[in-house]
Amino acid sequence: MIARLTLLTLAAALPLAGCNMTGTKPATVSGGCGIFRPLPGPIKADTRTGQVWVDGTAEVLARQCGFPRPSAP
Question: Which helix (H) or strand (E) holds 28?
């Protein structure tokens, strides 16, 4: 019975281990922002799909890492 309870506790705790909050950013994000740099300016992709990816990436960098959003062209 104790072994079952221990396994259940571990099964519930392990997925939440990365959710240790430091400030307003999850632990999995706060350390990762140091490897990125803010975008130098607006980026224009060749395709619509590419532009959606660029815009999404810029938005994530702005929200999660606090980088400034590139100004509109």
Answer: helix 27-30
